[in-house]
Amino acid sequence: MPRCNHTFWLALDTQQDEAEFLVSDKLQEVFETIPSPDVQKPSLVVVIGEAAKKAALEIFGIKRNRRSIVSQNASEIHLHIDPSSVFSTPLLIAETRVCKKESRKNADDTCHEITRQPIKRPRSLYDMQRPVNRLHTNLLAAFTDVFCLFCEDFGGLDQTAIELASWLDRSLPSSFSGRVRPRLIVVVDQNPGIGANENNVREKLFELIRKHTVKDPNAVFSAVETVALFPDESISRSARHRPLKERMMDSLDSARNDRLQSRHDFSATHFGALFKGACAQFAGNLDGSFNFVKIARNSNPIAQSLHAHLSDFLSLVKPPSDIATFAAPMIASSFLLDNYPPGTHCTV
Fold first, then answer.
1. Any idea what DSSP says for residue 30?
2. How many Å apart are CA 117 and CA 284, to the nearest integer?
């Protein structure tokens, strides 16, 4: 059967007295297009906006018709893959709209399997922004290399700062080191001029954020950049968005290197297994902290008798010097192999 063109991936849904977290099998479908999922290591970009976002997506060969965008609920997240990246480093692009107070029916793609997991319902539709922000800061942030926000679509730099301040206030500590936190790109519309202009915009953004929160953006993002684009229609669309694409690719290269150096670069197979566990944890507790080690053990829990087994094993090691040369490496390698999600080892 030919593949469909549906892109729906994640969403939050409220109906009467119930609230649900929706997860489609879109990620699995995307990974099925990758030739070597056990080896290839995808990168994830999350873009948030409206019209400006739609135009920018076209630089990655992604086009969405106006009807599908208008009907998209603000909590929906749609997933794409850059077609040119399938055979190298797969570039996943998740896109969503600016979260507003209205609520519409979420996508119902009958050709996709959609899992519905109950969550604690917000007190009112006006409180939906809180769990939507959690979706970004707690779930996606752990897997995202770059967040890209379009200032024009948020209503200007002031509104963008307010949105980011709410992210900072609701973000939770990650089990990752600081180097593998997501990077942030804020896109503004003005004449780029000299590079100092973008630096001024960045400083202004930080100043506005400080009016709404005491949290430091650098505690949540590994880097914060602004990209200034020429005014719309002053030059061709491809030329206008070229600086954004170049900056985006540079940020992705830096993010991949950070993950590689910190040993947090996941193959597509690992990515899929960990994300599935993360979704289940997120649905159970929107405010819970995220830990990859615990997620990896979900289907392979640690034996309660582990401590006794280790004590018995170490008591048999003679002489004591063998603890460092034999026992410790043996235990460490066993833990390493056992901590991978079942079935994710490559055959050598």
1. H
2. 8
